[in-house]
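Exercise (ungraded).
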Amino acid sequence: MGRSPCCDKVGLKKGPWTPEEDQKLLAYIEEHGHGSWRALPAKAGLQRCGKSCRLRWTNYLRPDIKRGKFSLQEEQTIIQLHALLGNRWSAIATHLPKRTDNEIKNYWNTHLKKRLTKMGIDPVTHKPKNDALLSSDGQSKTAANLSHMAQWESARLEAEARLVRESKLRSHSLQQQIGSSSTFASSSSASTSASVLNNNKPEAPPPPPPPPSRSSLDVLKAWNNGGWLKSSEGSGAIASTVGVSGDLESPTSTLSFSENAPQIMNAIGGENNNNNNDNAMPMIEFVGSSGNSSSLVKEEGEQEWKGYDSSINTFSSGLHEFTMAMEGTWVHETLRTNGSHDDIVEEGFTNLLLKTNSEDPSLSSEGGGESNNGDGSAGHSDFYEDNNNYWNSILNLVNSSPSHSPMF
DNA sequence: AATGTGAGCAACCGCAACCTC
DNA sequence: AGAGGTTGCGGTTGCTCACAT
């Protein structure tokens, strides 16, 4: 009964590694590679369990590890990715070169979590504390999950919307080419568009909900590179997925969001507000109040964070207050004018962060001197733009993520 | 100087996913 | 297909050190 131990623990050393042990491990791996971790300790002459060796190597001895203080950019990346991914440290670590998941996890738990807490933001839900307190009976984790899922759902819907838009464009061009009589019926994606545009319920039930992890990121990736459209054409996948706008059955969509419920359900529940729209193309809109937390307490030695709270609040608000509405058009103004969101996506994630920060002069020194037009008060349009940039930056992140990334 | 306390971090534990046969 | 082994991951523990009392 019970699990078999990962290795024979009799006589195996535990606890901190000595320099001699490090040297042995290092020398062995440099010469032979780690091979089977289970067999490594014996071969390397170490009285350690393979698991311990692996951990020591991956978290400490590996040559491509950067140690020391986290930069502001790294902190911001962690915070935003945590808002997006939750406690999935390995996924976060793939976007922080030379940082290990363990280090990021520790840094989060010892620094960032506390800072967010001091700033009045629940580090679990990334919501302002007051909101988090609403879920009084220890449901913050659930709320966090729902929040994350809501974010994914929003991203997914936006991806779907993009597909619809592209399908629509395609169908229109097709119409112009071959006439208007049978365009929608001749293309599954176009018919999908028609279905969505007419707010029809899909014939097939929606596919099972993607977990808010890889598949969600796949959606983002597909969204970003259009691959999903290609892969979905003719498959009816769009129809079933986009069907959320009409007949939402995806659990990720039908969850009873305790806090975001009104917005989320308004956004994704077809019967709720699609009626007001000329067509049913989904729109994802970030609605957030400009953060103003100047009174928040700062830790000593956190000058970097002076004013950073505003950007934190900005993105936090964007995350937790964004609403998705089925509007006539979802396309961001920039997309409309440029006809492509690649221009936005090309703006790096870091730049985005810094750009956001540039609202605060005290933070403008670290790179990304490009300034937005914000006056610091972040009016609705600016805020909207910032949050779109935020998500686009995430997409950029997704798109540019290393091929070995377990997530992307 | 001795003791208490909290922060920071390395390492461990156990679960789950993945791989191999 | 499924059983057993391996690896990855996230939560947690416990040690060390700095600072306060």
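Further reading is listed at the end of the chapter. For now, observe: Residues 19-61 of chain A form a domain with the Arc Repressor Mutant, subunit A fold (CATH 1.10.10). The mean pLDDT of chain A is 54.
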